[in-house]
Amino acid sequence: MSKRIVIFIALLSMSNLMCWFEAYDFEQDNFTKTKPVSSAVAGTYVLTEKSKKFVSEMEDVTESNAQNISITLFSDGTFEMQNMPKNWAIEEFQFNSPNDVTFPIKGKWSLVQENWWWRIEFVIDLSGKNSTEFLSNTFSSQVDIGGEHPPYSLWLYIGVGDPNRLPLIIFEQVVK
């Protein structure tokens, strides 16, 4: 009888361990765990080659536009995004934006902590644009920062929902 209990407890422990592995997001190991210096994060970020290929297959992006997609983080806390695909992030932005929205998109950025890793929060300013169809004049979205030191990377999940099930595009910081 005691042997059966030991086997039962061992099986129960293994099943709990397997659930933990399923819930663990291994991508988080790539994220920045120590607060980066804002000036080191500032700079221009471009798509990795793999991300360029993925993005060029999206319906609203041409191959030449995929080559020119970029995010620039300025040291004064502002940013500019060039040629971003319409469905790159924010739910309200995706579903409530007029068809004639054009990029670049501008706004402010800041470093924010998410559990034990660091992210960039973008606050997108839509005032002054044809924003009468938007729910608000500003939207915010966060992206993960990869790496512990420059050059950093930015990890953007395409769409809305569980990041473990969404396509991912990665931007690399351009080193000058």
Question: How big is the Rg?
Answer: 20 Å
Largest β-sheet summary: 8 strands, antiparallel, barrel
How many helices does DSSP assign? Answer: 5
Q: Structurally, how many domains make up the residues? A: 1
Summarize the structure.
With 176 residues, this protein is α+β, with helices and mostly antiparallel strands. The chain has helices spanning 2-23, 38-41, 49-56, 63-67, 91-96; strands spanning 43-47, 70-73, 78-82, 105-114, 117-125, 138-146, 153-157, 168-173. It contains 5 helices and 8 strands, in the order H-H-E-H-H-E-E-H-E-E-E-E-E.
Please, could you describe this protein's structure?
The protein is an alpha+beta fold. The chain has a single domain (30-173), classed as Lipocalin (Beta Barrel), CATH 2.40.128. It contains 5 helices and 8 strands. The chain has an 8-stranded antiparallel barrel. The longest helix is centred in the N-terminal third of the chain and has 22 residues, at 2-23. It starts with a helix and ends with a strand. The model is unreliable at 10-26 and 90-102 (pLDDT under 50).
List keywords for this structure.
single chain; 176 residues; Lipocalin; 8-stranded antiparallel beta barrel; globular
What topology does this entry show?
Layout: H1 2-23, H2 38-41, E1 43-47, H3 49-56, H4 63-67, E2 70-73, E3 78-82, H5 91-96, E4 105-114, E5 117-125, E6 138-146, E7 153-157, E8 168-173
Antiparallel strand pairs: 1-2, 1-8, 2-3, 3-4, 4-5, 5-6, 6-7, 7-8
